[in-house]
Design brief:
single chain
Length: 138
């Protein structure tokens, strides 16, 4: 009979998986921050070219507004995800089960804050898209 408490191994595997997924998601966020947005090609219709320029201006302003917070949120998600993966690896050997609990709680809180930030940013981005679609179809 094993001396491991019941359910520890699945929690450790989940912690490792969630940690790796958080690190990968954060890496994608970093790529999004460092890559330049592509400009839309000019259209034959001057009104559409003007709308595209205004759309790009609004999106750039939105990105400039959210970038400082993104520079805090993305690394914190990556750090707590790495913490969670490390705690999962340590927990497999029954070392640091308290560390595993702490890592789950910290990761949950940081991911919750990140989700709130991303939701607010998404709502603002959707508002810009709605304006653009309304102008294009008018």
């Amino acid at each position: 009979m094993s001396d491991k408490p019941m359910g520890v191994m699945p929690l450790c595997i989940i912690a490792i998986f969630l940690g790796i997924m958080g690190i990968l998601g954060g890496a994608m966020g970093v790529l999004g921050l460092v890559m330049d947005q592509q400009k839309m090609a000019p259209d034959k219709d001057p009104k559409l070219t003007e709308l595209n320029a205004e759309f790009e201006r609004r999106m750039q302003a939105f990105m400039k507004e959210t970038r400082p917070l993104s520079l805090v949120v993305i690394p914190s998600v990556m750090l707590t995800s790495a913490l969670l993966a490390a705690a999962g690896l340590a927990g497999i050997n029954l070392k640091g089960l308290g560390f595993l609990k702490l890592a789950f709680v910290v990761n949950l809180l940081v991911d919750l804050g990140s989700a709130v930030f991303q939701s607010i940013a998404q709502v603002k981005s959707i508002a810009i898209m709605k304006w653009y679609l309304a102008e294009v179809t008018a």
